[in-house]
Amino acid sequence: MTHAIVGAYEATYERHPPPGRTTAELLREAVVGAVADAGLTMGQIDGLGVSSFTLGPDHVIDLAWRLGLSPRWLMQDPLGGASGINLLQHAVRAVEAGDASAIVLVAGDRFDRASFAAVSDDYNVATRDHVAPLRFGGPNAAFAMLTQRHSALTGLDERDYAQIPVTQRAWAADNPRAVYRTPLTVEEYLAAPVVWDPLRRYDCVPIVAGADALVITAAPGTRSVRVRALEALHNVDNQDGAGISGGHSRLAPTLWERAGLGPSDVDVIGVYDDYPVMVLAQLVELGFAPDGDVARLVHNGIASRRLAVNTSGGQLSAGQAGAAGGMHFLVEAVDQLRGRRHGVPGARTALVSGYGMVLYRYGACANAVVLEAVP
Amino acid sequence: MSVHVWECTACRRAAFPRPLCCPVCGGSEFIATAAESGVVEQVTRAPGRPDAAATVRCDGGVRLLARVPADTGPGDRLLLTHNADVLGAAWVPAPS
Asked: How open is the CA angle B84-B86-B91, to the nearest 5 degrees?
């Protein structure tokens, strides 16, 4: 048996959604869109996987019921920025094993300031007991300190980090789905209010309502995409390190070996960008700065657009729709490989990196996938 | 004045918060030990706030997130407390 990603869809991201656009409605919109994109009917779907922070009290079976599906395969994933690749890892195996023939994976949230605060204060027991009482207002303070550690290690300064949101905003100009598309300059970045030193406004993802979905089948479709390699490694240091180098650096050798490719071979790169520093940390871990020169990676690789990194604008420009952040980069990569998007014509291969789940001081989940277009 | 960090009774590894199993030896018994002070590694400030956020490394090696006085700098040694009302110390929340 084999597998193929044959459908991808992103429900429109919105900063200020109307009242009726609930989490369930966003998920429905993405599921129906992805199934139609795959050229299938809802009746042909026999597997459903979901990731959402705000679907509760419903679970994946409630969603199946409300979507009118009778699945042979169900999965629910709470792993935020790592959930998309985690769901994909299991769905690929499921269709290859014959446990399902057509799986739809969906992730999304209707997030606004209040619901985001509720989720972030009750994220896990450690956060509820030891972080939320500090009233730091979510993970910004922790990632400000992580950025300080990264800066001390690499020598990068604020103008270097600015290149990430500035360049991603330039990519977003070609993405009608991005919530922010107006060009951003380094000077505007530097003039924006400080959130937690050294993080400024444009270092922090805008919270949006939205959803993303993929369809994976056992049989290749026209212009589909397949997984060449997928690796994951979680909680490598029990929160005792700097949070800069961890799971991705250890999974990278196996990932590239199994893919039969190297970092210089991929045409499109999607890296989970909850903060600019994490874009750089993951790229370095995955081998995109083989000489260790991170400043060169920033300026000659990312800012020059020699590397096509976060071509949707990333979450920093497209928006962070809760758990959809883990699926967003997969949808973008699949769209690029199927020639559905501007920016990287003729793209044949893509790398997508997932990261997330701040346990106490930083994220603990790491995964990555190498995708290729199937003509 | 101190905060409780957790020490594996088998291998003495320190941890915070309290783990279920020790990541080094697999043991599942821990005793609370008092960490009285720690050294500030990073500090960050948000405009309009009278305090600062910090990563504090306590003497047992465990790194803690804490609220610290606004004039705290990296390298400073601060007393550690679970009591939010103690001024001038690093506050590490913990359920009472």
From this structure: 50
Distance (Å) from the alpha carbon of B45 to chain A's nearest alpha carbon: 5
Using a CB-CB distance cutoff of 8 angstroms, which residues of chain A are in contact with residue B91?
Answer: 134
Residue B85, Cβ density class (10 Å: 0-12 exposed, 13-18 middle, ≥19 buried): exposed
Which of A145, A193, A239 shows the shortest C-beta gap to B44?
A145
- Chain B contacts of A129, Cβ < 8 Å? 17, 93-95
Contact (Cβ atoms closer than 8 angstroms) between residue A330 and residue A351: no
Tens-of-pLDDT digits for all 375 residues of chain A?
699 999 999 999 999 999 999 999 999 999 999 999 999 999 999 999 999 999 999 999 999 999 999 999 999 999 999 999 999 999 999 999 999 999 999 999 998 778 888 888 899 999 999 999 999 989 999 999 999 999 999 999 999 999 999 999 999 999 999 999 999 999 999 999 999 999 999 999 999 999 999 999 998 777 899 999 999 999 999 999 999 988 999 999 999 999 999 999 999 999 999 999 999 999 999 999 999 999 999 999 999 999 999 999 999 999 999 999 999 999 999 999 999 887 899 999 999 999 999 999 999 999 999 999 998
The partner residue sitting opposite A240, judged by closest CB among B63, B65, B84, is B63
Q: Which backbone phi and psi does A199 adopt, to 5 degrees?
A: -75, 135
Q: Is B54 on the interface with A (CB under 8 A)?
A: yes
How many separate helices (H) and strands (E) can be counted in chain B? 0, 8
- Report the complex ipTM: 0.97
The set of residues, in sequence order, having a beta carbon less than 8 Å from that of A192 and lying 6+ positions away, is: A200, A201, A202
* Set of chain B residues whose Cβ sits within 8 Å of the Cβ of A123: none
CB–CB of B54 and A129 under 8 A? no
